[in-house]
Please model this.
Amino acid sequence: MCAENCTKCAQDGGQCLVCNDGFYGTSCTQTCGQCESNHCDVTSGNCETCQPDWTGQRCDVKVDMQTTDINQSEDEESYTWLYIVIGVGIVVVLVLSIVCVVKRRTTTPRDSTLPSIVKFENSNSPNNQTNPAGEEQGHVLINIGTTESDPIEGPVGISVTMLKTMIVEKMADEEKEFISEFNGFPTGSCHPHTAAEINKSKDRFKSIHPYDHSRVILDSVGKGSDYINANYIDNVEASKVYVATQGPILTTIDDFWRMVWKLNSGKIVMLTNLIEKEKTKCEKYWPDEGEPMSTKTFYIMQNRERDYASHVVRNITVVDRKTKEKRDIYQFHFTTWPDHGTPNTLELVLLHRRVKLTKSVLPGQMVIHCSAGIGRTGTFIALDALFDYGKRYNRVDIPQFVTTMRKDRMCMIQTLEQYVALHEILAEAFDLQETLIPKSTFVAKYHDLASKGQPQNQTQLRDEFRLMLDLKPDYKLEQDFLASTLPQNVTKNRTMEILAADRYRPFLTSYTSNGNDYINAVVTQSYIARSGYIVTQFPLPNTRVDFWTLMMDYQCDSVVILGDENDSEPDTQWIPANKEDIDIGDFNVKQKGTSTEFNGVGVIDLAVTRKNVKAVHNSRIFRMKEWTAERNVPPSKQSTLHLLEQVESRRRSSGSKPVVVMCRDGSTQCGLFCLMANTRDQLKMDEEVDVFQAARQLLIRQPEFLATFDQYEFCYAILNDYLETTDVYIN
Model:
């Protein structure tokens, strides 16, 4: 039973998944702030936009401009004498500085390759009544990194090797230090935005507008036509390196493409889905493959679309309708970042790597957008800028760069959660290993990694495996496995050593009155789908009904059985013998025809019906009986390659339905099968492979996968055999 203000909850853990408007929290008992739509994030309580006169992440801070103005007026007289004293002090400092410069003219200047450090101070402060350095939109820019009188020993910030330690320290005491830093950033509208005032109809959110001094100005084609809600953003060392913008609305799609064209951009990074939580976040500004679209200014065609587990890459051609000039543009669409939330760090870092490695002949700025163009957009820009800087100097100053972004676009990195996540994403990025191998060099690289001449425990491959285990998540039994450890569910686990983490388990939805939503299974990604596989154990006597409930609830029509399911406990038959049928609870399972076997892989077709359900559910079972629980690796590479080919062929014919993968304990054989399938798909699709990162992604879902080195090594070996037998590699 869900809590009072909870509209959807987990049946076992009791945690609310969806709250009524106006409430949030694990039990939907906390009240949202003054959100414009009376709806806030179910986990954090953050609002998308605030009602007038309210601000803050949760819209719980009242803005009282009148009181502020009165207080400032009352303070002016009391500060008069202070201003005089400070003014005299500044004159003295300037005189001394001139003397120092004269004395240092004969000294060796600092290394000109080091970056300038620019400090932004509010010009309304009593300490800045005079502006000796030149004023830009309400801020004094004081270059403190290039003067000879103030030499700097090198890049500022923290060493990238200390990032993880710093994160732990700042997370202490309920993230107190992170909260203090984040609350210290300039917030709201800090600079003039007069162009936005007369173009409000072109803004997605009425409270998010571009500053005049940094906005992208389009080539004018009529009144108001030079406006788009977009700003240039600096990186650490150069100006106008990126463009941050909102997700286009219906009336600004042509404006968006005019901006991309004006900038001569070759890459677009999209960090939102078109619809999230039943709200439109961005209009679809590109066509489907084979269905060209046109705007007032351009013809637009999609040439290729590649779907991955966490993102999509599209090759788009844009043609100017007047000049007929043609440009090819890449769009990188990250599909798994929740609005106001945080992404899986490894998935985002791997997308970032793909963006960096993709070469475009167009030299313009990369265009980055989410929905509002501030939260997710700011996080990605900070990742790219600080990663480049950290690689060059081995140091980063994260708070300073957030301030740098916010001087040119308001509220960049919108929430505390995104700010904390940026630190974790950067730590992940700097830890990223150089393990991506082109197909053309894989065979040679594999033999180098294995290094047969070295002691077995000292190969590069074994070093990779050890690092993989070191980096796998450390889930806590009492925090991450609540459903698995409930008394009514303990008997559904074959072993308490291999459990389903709450955040990755599939919820049964059509269970009977004497059942619940738990099954010991995890949803894990294939190379092309976020929910490509559902991995589970062989059914127990009391979970046979749960298994077929899972199959129907998730419309799975393919099952891979690794080992002999008949070697399990008695009374656990869940697949009928040839041309027979069996009843399991409300289910009737019937074998269609006779089973076949070729090259060590058996195939069975089943028809499953359920009481009071008219539709027949058809499933195909793939069996590799010889890969038993006692074997960490398959007995035959040839049979394994045949199994992978059969499963891929079935997946192509049945669409995006998850494939169920089973072994006795739900881990030992299953993890290696998923790794082999994902890396083989990567080789075929992208002509490159990264076994290390593919393994790490699987371990996020089930840390007990790939527990032995011989499994990790076998994946490399079978990919080597795959390339040699298909004769597609280049010597």
Remarks:
- The radius of gyration is 30 Å.
